[in-house]
Amino acid sequence: MQPRSLFAIFACVLILATAIPQAASAGDFKYMTPDQVKEMIDSKTPMHIVDIQVEEEFDDHHLADAMATYSYPVKSQEDTDKIDVIIDELKADTTPVVVVCPRGKGGAERCYNYLAKQGVEEERIFILEGGQGGWPFDDYVESK
């Protein structure tokens, strides 16, 4: 195995290991800090970034390579239908799934629960702490 591959695996395990204790104090949901997500991006650790912001907000600012669902606030069948489009892709591997919403609260929690209900392993699902609004690294943000 290449040293770079070993580093990527180690970085992913380290990031996930630091995220899980944080989740235990947060209730039923697991969170990743912006620093943890940035580290995963920097180390090219595979992950799915599921962005649920409405289309206008997504167009204004989103993380590079985010999967746009435009499903916020994830309260209706219409909202969850938008998430269904990506479920098979999320279930096709075992990489972490990071849910991004405007502020990292109710919409993200509803998406987290919906993904778990649809068969995405809950240990892989995380919420970006603070949501897109709390993301401090402008160099990692794109707009349409």
TrEMBL record:
Residues 95-144 form the Rhodanese domain. PROSITE patterns: RHODANESE_3. Keywords: Signal. Pfam families: Rhodanese. This is Rhodanese-like domain-containing protein. Residues 1-26 form the signal peptide. The lineage of its organism: Bacteria, Pseudomonadati, Thermodesulfobacteriota, Desulfovibrionia, Desulfovibrionales. The keyword Signal applies. It comes from the Bacteria. CDD domains: RHOD.
